[in-house]
Amino acid sequence: MLYLDIIIAGLLTGAVYGLMALGLSVIFGVIRVVNFAHGEMMVVGMYAAYLIAVKTGLDPIAALPLVTAGLFLLGYALQRGLINRYIARPEHEQFLLLLAIATIITASLLMGFGPDARSVQLDYAYDSFQLGPLLLDKVRVLAAVGAVLGVALLWGFFRLTRTGKAIRACADNQIGAQVVGLDVKRLYAVTFGLGAACVGAAGCLMLLLIDVQPYIATDYTLLAFIIVILGGLGSMPGALLGGALVGVSEALSGFAVDPSLKSAFSFALLILVLLVRPQGLLGRA
Amino acid sequence: MRSGRFPILPRRAAAALALFVAAMLALPFFVNSYIVSVLVVVLFAAYFGQAWNIVTGFAGQLSLGHALYVGLGAYTSAALFTRYGLPPWIGMLAGIAVAALAGGIIAALSFRFRVGGVYFALLTIAFAEFTRILFDHFDGVGAASGLFLPVSSLARDDVLLLRGSPVMFYYLLLALTLGALALCHDLLRRRIGYYWQAIREDEEAAQALGIDVFRYKVAAMALSAAMTSVGGAFLAFYENNLYPDTVFAVGRSIEIITAPIIGGLGTLFGPILGAFVLTTLGEAMTSLSSGFTLNGLKQWCYGAALLLIVALQPAGLWPWLRARLGIGAVRR
Amino acid sequence: MSVPPLLEVRGLAKRFRGLQAVDGVSFAVPKGGIVALIGPNGAGKTTTFNLIAGVFAPDRGSVVLDGADITGLRPDRACHAGIGRTFQMVKPFGALTVLENVMVGAFKASADSGAVRQAALEILDRLGLAGKAGTVANSLTLPERKKLETARALATRPKILLLDEVMAGLRPTEIDAMVRTFADLSREMGLAILLTEHVMRAVMALSHHIVVLHHGQKICEGTPEQVSRDPRVLECYLGSAATAVGMG
To answer: Is B197 within 8 Å of C95 when comparing Cβ atoms?
Structure first.
C-alpha cells in the first residue's frame, strides 16, 4: 500500500504541475512563442499568495482568485506591450526577450523578498484523510482539486465563450482569423493572460506544497517544458497527462532511488518520448 | 551593386582586425591583474559564443544546451589528467571526440525523427540537464563534491601542462579565439558554409538544390560541440575545480548563447563583440552594486540591458557597429 | 522515334486525406523538349511537380529520369539525379545575396568557390539578374524572386528543369524575354523543361507539347494547336477561364 500512497501523492502533485504546464501549452499552442519566463511567472504567483497570507492571514487558496486575476493582467500587459512585437521574429530574438523578462522578474523578487526561502503556515499542513486503505495528505488533495477546477474552467472558456472560440480559430489559422476580422493582437494578449493566470493559480497551489524562493523559477520553467512536450505541445489533456506522469515519476524515484535523481528521471522520460513520439503522447502529428 | 561583399576581406576591415589583434596582444602589459582576469572571462565567452554560433548562427539550429559540451570537454581532460597523468592537450583530443560524438548523436536522433525548431532546442536542454544530474552522482569524477586539479606551485608558466598564470591563459585563449575566427571565416567561404546558411534560411529550398540537409545539420552540431569542448578543457585547467552544478548549468548554456545573440547571430565578429559588451556590463553591475547591499540589483540591470538591446538592435550590435565604422561586411 | 524519353511519368497517384490530388497521370518529356502541364487551379499540377521532385512519395506510379528510376527519391537525391525545380511560393535564402543564392545551387557541381562563383555569375547574366548580384534576396521584388528561383535551379545543372509558375507577375515584355531565355537554354544546352503556367501567352509560345490536367487526371495532351482546339479542354478549362485569366 505504501507504493500506492506514493503514486497517489504523485498524481495529486502532478495535477498542479499539469495546471502550470497548461499555461505554457496554451501560450505556445496559440501564439507559437515559448514562454521562457514561465517558471518565473509561477514564482510571482507564489510570492503574491505569500504576501497576501502574511499581510491578511488569508489562506493561499482563498487568495487564489485575486492572484489569478493579477497574473492575468500581468500576462495581458506583457503580451500587449512587448511580446506582440516579436511574434513574427526569429526564435532566438523571442528567446532573448523572454530571457530578459525572466531575469527582471527574478531580480525584482530578489530585491523585494531576498534570497531566503519563505513559506506559509497552514494549520492543516499535516492533516490527512483515510480513504479506504489509502492515506491522503489534505494539502495535496486541496491543491489537486484546485488544479482540476482550474483546468475545467479553462476548458469551458475555450469551448463555450465567444472569445475562447475566437482564440481557437486564431490558433488553427491566424491569417484566416484576421481575414474574418478578429483582433488577433488582442486575442493573443488574452491568451498570454490566460497562460499567466494558469501558472499564477498553480503558484498559489504550489505554495501549499513547497517553500518559495526566487531561484527555483528556472527549475519550474524546465519542468513545464518537460510536461508539455511529454503530453504534446498545444494539447490541453496532454498537459494534464504529462503533469501526472512527471508527478508520479518524481514521487516514485524520489522514494525508491534518490530524491536528487528525481529530475533525471523526468528528463529521461522526456528524451524517450521525444525520440519515440516527438509530437508528444497526445499531440497531433 | 555592392561587390565588395565577397570573400576577400575589405581593406578597412583587415586594418580594423589588425588593430584589434595588436591591442589585444599588448593589453596585458598595461593593465592590472583584475582586468586580465576579466579579459579571460571575455575570451572564454567569445570562444564559446563562436563555437555555438556555428550550429545556431550559421546552420540555424537553436541549441540551448551547450553547457553539455563545455562539461564533457572539461571533465574528460581533467579526469584523464588527475587519474592517469595524461597531459591536457591529449585529454583535449579525447574531449573533442566525446563531445563531437555526443553532439552528433543528439543531432542525429533529433533530426532523424524530424524533431525541429523548439523541440530540438528543448531536447538539447534535456540532454544537458540529464548529464548534469548524472555527473552529480558519478563518483569516479568526484560527483557533486567536485573534481579538483592540483594547483600549480611552479614559478614559471608551463604551457604543455596548462599550469600557469592568468596571463598565460589570456594568450592561449586569445589564440584560440582568433583561431576560431579564422576557421569560421574559412568555413563561410566554403561549400559547407554556404550549405549551412541555405539550410538556415530555407530547408526545403536547400534540399531541392541537392543538399543533404540531415548530414550538414549533424556536421554543424558535431563541429560546434567539438570546439566547445576545447574551451571546456581550458576552463577546467584555468579554474582548477569542477562542479557539475556549475559546469553543466542551464545558466551557463544561456550565458554562452547570449553573447553571440547580442553581438549579432550568424556574424563572424558578433560573438566576440557580444562577449566584450556582456562581460563588461556584468562586471560594471557587480562593482556598482557592491556599494549597496540590495540583492538582485545587478541582475535587474542586466535584464534591463538585455531588454534594451533586443528592443533596439534585435539583429545584434555588430551589424550596427560595422555600419558605423564603415567596414563593409566582412561577411554578412 | 525509338529514343526513350528523358523523363517518363507513369500512372502517378497521390491522395491527401480523402482528396485524390493526382490520379494516374502519365506523360513523357523528351530530351531538350519543353512540355507544359496546364489545368485549372487545384488540377494537381504542383502536386505532380512535388511527386517528381521527391517532396512526397507517390502512392502509385513511377518516375524515370534518363533511364534511372527516381520514384520516391528524397528531394536532394532527385536533384543529384538531374531534377532542378522552382517553387511556386518562392523560397529565397533571404539573408544571402542573389549571387550567394545561386552559388548554393552551383556548389552541387564543384566545391571550388572561385569556379562556383564564376558559374553563378554567368547564370545571373543569362537571366538578366547580374545587376542584382550583390543585393540581399529579401529586398527583391516578386518577379525578381521568381527569376532567382530559376537561376538557382539552373545552377545545379539539371537535366530537366521544373518551372512552377515563374512568369506570374511579369509584364508582357518581360514574359517574352523569359520565353526567349528558356527557348535558348533548351536549344543550346539540350535542357528539357517541364512547366506549369497560368500565363497562356508563355505556354503557347514556349511549349512543344501540352498536358492538360483536371481533378488530378490527364484529360488530353498534344501540340499547342491540338490542345487549344480540343473540346474537352475548352469545356473544363474555359469553364474556369475567369480564374485563369484573373491569375495571369
So the answer is: yes
Q: In whole angstroms, what is the distance from residue B46 CA to residue B62 CA?
A: 18
Asked if chain A contacts chain C via 3 or more Cβ pairs within 8 Å, the reply is: no
pLDDT attached to residue B109: 87
pLDDT band at B6 (very low <50, low <70, confident <90, very high): very low
The separation between CA B172 and the C-alpha centre of its own chain, rounded to angstroms, equals: 15
Q: B84-92 — which CB contacts under 8 Å span 24+ positions?
A: B87/B160, B87/B161, B88/B161, B88/B162, B88/B233, B88/B236, B88/B237, B89/B160, B89/B162, B91/B233, B92/B229, B92/B230, B92/B233
Confidence grade of residue A115 (pLDDT, cut at 50, 70, 90):
confident
Minimum-distance CB partner of A107 among B62, B121, B300? B300
How many residues can be counted in chain A? 285
| Closest by Cα among B221, B68, A21 to B76 | B68
Whole-number Å distance between alpha carbons of B129 and B250: 7
Whether B190 and C100 lie within 8 Å, measured CB to CB: no
Assign C247 a pLDDT band (cuts: 50, 70, 90).
very low
Alpha-carbon distance B20 to B61, whole Å? 30
Among C31, C27, C24, C26, CA closest to C5: C31
- Beta pairing partners, C14: C22
Position B325 scores a pLDDT of 81
Terminal-to-terminal C-alpha distance of chain B: 15
| DSSP string over B196-255 | HHHHHH-HHHHHHTT--HHHHHHHHHHHHHHHHHHHHHHHHHHH-EE-HHHHT-HHHHHH
- Using alpha carbons only, give the angle C122, C124, C128 rounded to the nearest 5 degrees: 120
Quote the CA–CA distance of A233 and A277 in Å, as a whole number: 12
- Asked if B204 and C108 come within 8 Å (Cβ–Cβ), the reply is no
Which of A109, A261, A274 is nearest residue B115 as measured by Cβ atoms?
A274
Main-chain dihedrals φ then ψ at residue C91, nearest 5 degrees: -130, 70
Give the phi and the psi of residue A158 in degrees, each rounded to 5.
-70, -30
CB A279 within 8 A of CB A229: no
pLDDT at B7: 44
Condensed to tens digits (0 to 9), the pLDDT of residues C226-235 reads 888 888 877 7
Percent of chain A with pLDDT over 70: 99
Nearest-by-Cβ selection for B209 from C96, C108, C135:
C108
- The pTM score is 0.89
> Helix-strand-coil percent breakdown of chain C, rounded to 5?
45, 25, 35
ipTM: 0.89
- Write down which chains contact chain B via at least 3 CB pairs under 8 A: A, C
Q: How many CA atoms, within 13 angstroms, populate the side-chain half-sphere of residue B207?
A: 17
* Structural contact between residues B197 and C103, judged by C-beta atoms closer than 8 angstroms: no
Collect all residues from C whose CB is shorter than 8 A from any CB in B.
Answer: 53, 55, 74-76, 79-80, 85, 87, 91-97, 99-100, 103-105, 107-108, 111, 113, 116-117, 131-135, 152-153, 155-156
**Does residue B195 belong to the interface with chain C, where contact is any CB pair within 8 Å?**
yes
Band the pLDDT of B220: cuts 50, 70, 90. Answer: very high
Q: A–B: how many Cβ contacts below 8 A?
A: 128
Strands C34-38 and C192-196: parallel
Residues in B closer than 8 angstroms to A108, CB to CB, are 296, 300
Nine cell digits for residue B273: 563583440
Q: Which stretch of A29-38, B287-296, C70-79, C135-144 has the lowest confidence by average pLDDT?
A: B287-296
- Cα B278 to the center of its chain, rounded Å: 13
Q: Which amino acid is at A76?
A: Y
For residue A89, pLDDT over 60 is answered with yes
Across C102-106, average pLDDT: 97
